[in-house]
Amino acid sequence: MSYDDVFRFDPDLADDIHEHPREMLEYFEEALRLYDLPVDVSLSDAHVRIHDLPDNDVLDVAEVPRHENIGRLLGIRGQVQKVSAVKPRIVEATFECQRCGTQTSIPQAGDQLQEPHECQGCERQGPFRLNSSASTWTDHQFARVQQPPERTKGGEGETIDVHLEDDIIQEFDAGDRVTLTGVLDIEEPKGDQTRDFDTTVDGQAVVREESSYEDIDVSEHLDEIEAIAAGEHGDPYNLLVQSINPEHEGDEDVKLAIALQMFGGWSRGGQKRGDSHILLMGDPGCGKSTFLQAVDELAPRSTYASGKGATAAGLTAAAVADDFGDAEWGLEAGALVLADGGVACIDEIDKVNDSVVSSLHDALESQLVRINKAGINATLNARTALLAGGNPEHGRFNPYQPIAQQLDLGPTLMSRFDLMFMVSDSPDEEADREVIDHMMRSRRAAAKKELGENLTEEEQKSIEPEISRETLRAYIAYAKEEVTPYLRETETEAREYLREEFLKLRLANADEEDNPVPVTYRQEEAIERLAEASARVRLSDEVRREDVDRALSLVRKSMEQVGIDPESGQFDADVVETGQSKSQRDRRKQVLAVIEDQNGATVEAVTDIIDMDETKVERDIDSLKQRGQVYEIDGELRKS
């Protein structure tokens, strides 16, 4: 029942429900039982549920545990972090005296089972046996609701535990956004009595959000959004580039790619992934993290996590031993699930351990997280774009090795990324001068703004985005909710252009013997996703040739940066697909041939025979050892 309906019927009655919810809901349910109904209709198990409270009574999780809210009916907006298994809970316990057999019923409240003080028959103090079949039961579940990640500014969100009973159990999964109606209560202290009490919520109704962005008021910004999309303020794509991480000078391709990632392609009911995954690579200190932090602030839904020390539950989801007090298992959502419908930003992804990496594979491709453990079988949505930052395996990138090979991620995980970019830190006098000037200008502008001094137009631009944060968040939310672009039959030019350009990519640098398929079909889907995102920027349902061209340009630049074999200077997609380039494969074949021919050659002998760079040959021999193709006995190499 809607609170608004009650208020229109009788405002005083609505106020009583708000201030004294337990008593009033009990009266409502008693009225149901007294209602005159046909013989074959019973409402004995029915409950009255109040939802849709006024906006001023719907609180964020952090606002709930206040003394003035105790005992009141509240609306709580948040995201489900964890849910427990469903268990039976006793409502009225019937005990049987083991001396005389007299049965006594005791209404139950709180967490501890209350036994009779004495038998009503023989008046002895037990012993008593619980008669489970004669007792009254209900189903019960705990849930932990947290402040949504994008509202916590990168910190750990406040949480509150909720008790759910009977018909409102299993109404949501971990990761879902919900608005709960419930009564704030205090928990009984455990151990010594203190003056401080923890709070819980007695859940009365649950409404799962149908829209992904209900907390964003798009109507307030709609006129400006439409003007930007129509090009009234300039090229919308340039405006987006200038609005992402404005304090970081350069890397326009990275900024455009991130902008398209936030708008996203269109997911066809879970059948085809619409979200693009992007990996930013670079030496430490070159600004990768600033991009992740910027997206965490701009994306309508986002989470931020570090790969260092992350667990599978921290990135995807897992069945974990819960801490609701019963030492059972619960389902806990991780970063990808919590950012469902948005962007998950994971820094230092190269530090993620192997067990966590394996859990990412399926989540990134199918956008589902499957949990089968401890009796919990669940599938959670992870319709999330991943923006990850990674550092080289040995601290800094070696310009003489393929870039993809220096990231300790493995080919399978790397193949899940649509785009991979180097955030470079290569010395360049002219470029470095511009970057330093921009850094000094933005820092000076920030100081003048803090002190209330007037800023020049150039200083203003160095710290203020072209599109404000609030407008951009609403822009993205509106485009993702309302615009569903795809390559339609009528867009013949765009479809033919995509097909022919992809075939050029696929066949370029192909070698029938060693590299027959330099580009896989994954790139074609990546291009379509990015082209759809480009159409969404214009708020268009049609993908045009210009969108395809924009997507192709980003994919080419990504492939050139990551897939270049530094020894040959040519593109080699196998660098990404297999982790080694054609030059390396050829040299390792020679090494294996020499070892097999010599049947006991030393490293020095192999190097002399091949007559190549000693460091490269030694590195190839180490790699062959790790792969189990070569072993060493008494300083001599032998083929396995």
From TrEMBL:
<keyword id="KW-0067">ATP-binding</keyword>
<keyword id="KW-0378">Hydrolase</keyword>
<dbReference type="InterPro" id="IPR001208">
    <property type="entry name" value="MCM_dom"/>
</dbReference>
<dbReference type="InterPro" id="IPR036388">
    <property type="entry name" value="WH-like_DNA-bd_sf"/>
</dbReference>
<dbReference type="Pfam" id="PF17207">
    <property type="entry name" value="MCM_OB"/>
</dbReference>
<dbReference type="InterPro" id="IPR027417">
    <property type="entry name" value="P-loop_NTPase"/>
</dbReference>
<keyword id="KW-0235">DNA replication</keyword>
<keyword id="KW-0238">DNA-binding</keyword>
<keyword id="KW-0347">Helicase</keyword>
<dbReference type="InterPro" id="IPR041562">
    <property type="entry name" value="MCM_lid"/>
</dbReference>
<keyword id="KW-0547">Nucleotide-binding</keyword>
<feature type="domain" description="MCM C-terminal AAA(+) ATPase">
    <location>
        <begin position="236"/>
        <end position="439"/>
    </location>
</feature>
<dbReference type="GO" id="GO:0005524">
    <property type="term" value="F:ATP binding"/>
</dbReference>
<dbReference type="InterPro" id="IPR031327">
    <property type="entry name" value="MCM"/>
</dbReference>
<dbReference type="InterPro" id="IPR012340">
    <property type="entry name" value="NA-bd_OB-fold"/>
</dbReference>
<dbReference type="Pfam" id="PF17855">
    <property type="entry name" value="MCM_lid"/>
</dbReference>
<comment type="similarity">
    <text>Belongs to the MCM family.</text>
</comment>
<dbReference type="GO" id="GO:0017116">
    <property type="term" value="F:single-stranded DNA helicase activity"/>
</dbReference>
<protein>
    <recommendedName>
        <fullName>DNA helicase</fullName>
        <ecNumber>3.6.4.12</ecNumber>
    </recommendedName>
</protein>
<dbReference type="GO" id="GO:0016787">
    <property type="term" value="F:hydrolase activity"/>
</dbReference>
<dbReference type="Pfam" id="PF00493">
    <property type="entry name" value="MCM"/>
</dbReference>
<dbReference type="GO" id="GO:0042555">
    <property type="term" value="C:MCM complex"/>
</dbReference>
<dbReference type="GO" id="GO:0006270">
    <property type="term" value="P:DNA replication initiation"/>
</dbReference>
<dbReference type="InterPro" id="IPR008047">
    <property type="entry name" value="MCM_4"/>
</dbReference>
<dbReference type="GO" id="GO:0003697">
    <property type="term" value="F:single-stranded DNA binding"/>
</dbReference>
<dbReference type="InterPro" id="IPR033762">
    <property type="entry name" value="MCM_OB"/>
</dbReference>
